[in-house]
Input
Amino acid sequence: MDQVRQVMQQMINITEEELESFLNKTSIKTFKRQEIVSMPDSIPNNIFFINKGIIRVFITDSEGTEHTIHFALENQFIADYSNFIKQQPSFYTLQALEETEVVILPRKTIEWGYNNLTEGQKMGRLVAEYYFIYQDDRIKNTYTRTPKQRYDSITDIFPNIHNRVPQHMIASYLGITPIHLSRLKKEDSRKL
Output
């Protein structure tokens, strides 16, 4: 709980008593490598804070092809935020790519925080703003940057990603084929 405690203290002014009351309403769970954290077609009722590990967010199209939308690493919150807020069935699958320990923040805990933490509303707003900015930047990058530029900047967004995530998932995230990703990697290795 130390990591989520530190992140919350960095985001908002919160007393030790408020923090304890909030964190007592959460739980910790470890997901195995490749285990599904959250399924599509069900209403997401949890937000997850990653203590250790990495979660991939993907959507499966009508032909069964998986499209990677996002990766979430340590010290980040992750959920299908839109459908969590709207209380509608999710489109996304959240999958642990390595053994991943999360703090589970159930809907009732989030709502308790909004109503009982002095800056609970601010906390919710900051998490939503972070996610909005991430998604907005991702859309802009997809349409305004070349695949090479997106490849070059992926480690700025996700440090050490190439050592933690299969290449076909990185290619999917970048919107390119695995073969194209291999070419980009070869070009980089020739420059060294």
Residues 145-192 form one domain. The mean pLDDT is 94.
